[in-house]
Specification:
Layout (H helix, E strand, L loop, with lengths): L17 E8 L9 E6 L7 H11 L3 E5 L9 E6 L2 E3 L3 H13 L7 E6 L2 E8 L4 E6 L3 E3 L3 H11 L9 E6 L3 E6 L3 H5 L5 H11 L3 E8 L2 E4 L2 E2 L11 H13 L9 E5 L7 E7 L6 E4 L1 E5 L1
Parallel strand pairs: 2-3, 11-12, 13-15
Antiparallel strand pairs: 1-2, 1-18, 3-4, 4-5, 6-7, 7-8, 8-17, 9-10, 10-11, 12-13, 12-14, 15-16, 16-17
Helix pairs in contact: 3-5
Length: 293
């Protein structure tokens, strides 16, 4: 895993080479946080094996920019983790769009981008110096008591823990939302990482997303099924699924930006911001991005 440090505006990378970003940085914290993204600005000619190898080299979700295949789209994005290709990656999309803006590659207030999960609406926030990325309405499915016990065993928690609740939720990939009673219980988790993949396959999930509600939002952790690393510092897709579920259950304040904090237990504090869409179902996803060396 590459050691990343903040820098100023870098030159555009050559074809097939990566610039490095850190996305969903929580600038209120003294520690440098966020989730790293290697970004290939010009991925034309790269094979899937080469893109996956680049993601494995850096050890992070990586973003690859291609010319758009549709006239009304800004570009086409592909995403790889060390283990496989992903249809959509929230923090990599937010970071890539921010970088395109800094390099003058995106200049309009609104646009669309292509991903394997479909077209995504995007909007530029000039005051916040950030991109907002659309997420569709959430889909949820209940879990059986046996499935809940299996997840509790992997997380090494008591299945009878007061306040414990689990549900599968998705805006693009299914995440298993696990509500814990306190942030202290969340931070104390020590999962059986070797068993995460099997339990995720058994319940039709791509990651376990335990969380605890706070006074101004939620705190969360992400244990992915098969990304090539045991924990993720910031997971936009999972946070969007959490926001969608909480919104459906009346737990999100109307017309306010909702913050999900992640990565604290890893020493990489992150802040994911979400807000309701006014023109369509679902939400907008955003966060602070920085350049890295």
């Amino acid at each position: 895993m590459t050691d990343l440090h903040p820098i100023g505006l870098p030159a555009e990378p050559a074809a097939g080479e990566a610039a490095l970003l850190r996305v969903f940085v929580d600038s209120t914290q003294p520690l440098q946080g966020g989730n790293p993204v290697p970004l290939v600005l010009d991925a034309r000619g790269m094979q899937a094996s080469e893109m996956q190898a680049l993601a494995a080299h850096y050890g992070h979700e990586s973003s690859f920019v291609f010319p758009a295949g549709l006239d009304d789209h800004l570009c086409r994005l592909r995403f790889f983790v060390p283990g496989h290709e992903m249809e959509m990656c929230g923090h990599a999309t937010v970071g890539t769009l921010w970088a395109l803006r800094q390099w003058g590659r995106w200049t309009t207030p609104h646009a669309r981008v292509q991903t394997l999960s479909g077209s995504v609406d995007i909007a530029w926030d000039e005051a916040g110096n950030r991109a907002w990325v659309s997420q569709p309405a959430v889909a949820t499915s209940a879990m059986t008591p046996a499935q809940c016990r299996a997840v509790a065993a992997v997380l090494r928690i008591d299945p009878a823990l007061p306040g414990l609740h689990m549900i599968n939720a998705s805006t693009s990939r299914v995440k298993t939302l696990v509500r814990l009673p306190t942030v202290a219980a969340l931070d104390a988790l020590a999962p059986d990482f070797d068993a995460v993949r099997d339990v995720c396959e058994a319940i039709g999930s791509t990651g376990l997303y335990p969380y605890a509600l706070t006074g101004d939002g939620a705190s969360a952790r992400q244990f992915p099924k098969a990304s090539g690393y045991p924990e993720d510092a910031a997971t936009g897709i999972a946070a969007a699924a959490l926001w969608g579920y909480l919104n459906e259950t009346g737990s999100v304040p109307p017309d306010q930006v909702y913050t999900v904090r992640q990565g604290v237990a890893m020493g990489s504090p992150s802040a994911i911001q979400l807000r309701r869409r006014g023109d369509a179902p679902g939400c907008w996803l955003s966060g602070e991005t920085q350049w890295m060396a």
